[in-house]
Predict the 3D structure of the following.
Amino acid sequence: MKTGDGRESPVALKRRARKINRILGETYPYAVAELDFRNAFELLVATVLSAQTTDVRVNLTTPALFARFPDPRSLAEAEVEELQDIIRPTGFFRAKANSLLALSNRLVDEYDGDVPGRLEDLVTLPGVGRKTANVVLGNAFGIPGITVDTHFGRLSRRFGWTAADDPIKVEAEVGALFETKDWTRLSHHVVFHGRRVCHAKKPACGACPVAALCPSYGEGEVDPAKAAKLLKYELAPGREELLERMRNGETRAELLRAGHALGA
């Protein structure tokens, strides 16, 4: 349904957006946060470390970090040089170490060593913005939130859900298209699709399950055979066993123990 000037009506936009999310949910029923964590503190730290690097690199770094500093109190007392050495592979390790030390001290001093479960508290912590706060709230506390990372912003614009570049505007405009309870799952679906199919430079349009609903169809490779070669992670050619195991509900930890590499 379009308005008199040919634009998509708000009702039609909302209907199309929700259909895209339903299809992405069917495509990625296993979509979860791709950072490994066991509690809110670990997720908070991992998300801070994920800035300007990949989740895969963070997941290789955090086991040693949490073995040495398992909670806010121990991390608050860490020697900065030792902390920098551990997190060095994630890049920007000096700034990240300073943020982790400062936020750990804040958690100890103001929240008795617990991670707060409110957006307004989380965003006051050093190194924590709305994106990080929504990741923690949605995945550690079960409080719905939209995580606007580079993938989410890119796909939201390609889908025609928003024209905004500012993450706060993207969060507000996209959030208005969906029920609040769906925000966290929506974030996982869109980010998974961005990492696997709808790449920044070469989107695999010919292998996209929502191609018929996407106004940006044709920006990438439309030939199905050629597009299939662009798919990444468990959708990549030759990784059919990994995809099947993920669809069967095996966790990231189980897949890693079975020897599956979970990178692109």
Remarks:
- The chain has two domains: 10-30+146-231, 40-140.
- Residues 40-140 form a domain with the Endonuclease III; domain 1 fold (CATH 1.10.340.30).
